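Weekly structure sync, notes
Attendees: PL (lead), two postdocs, one rotation student
Agenda item 3: pending single-chain targets
PL asked that the sequence for the first pending target be pasted directly into the notes so everyone works from the same version. It is reproduced below exactly as submitted, 70 residues in total.
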Amino acid sequence: MRFTAPVFVGDTLYAETEITGHRLSQSRPGTGIVTCRTTGHNQDGNAVVTSTRSFFVPVDADAVRDHTSY
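Predicted structure, written out during the meeting:
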């Protein structure tokens, strides 16, 4: 996380996430890797925090749903 401006007690924060990339995992078959950037804005619309993260997602969500009943 990178704070680009001060955040104060009582501020209202809003988050916006943008998908910046995706690819298949080389080490985990059936899994993809999604990368996204999240930006937090305060009540005045100023960007105050940014972060980039990556996470695993199943390539076939229906197969996972059938297997887990979830």
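Discussion points:
- The chain has a mean pLDDT of 93.
- The longest strand covers residues 47-58.
Action: rotation student to compare against the earlier draft before next sync.
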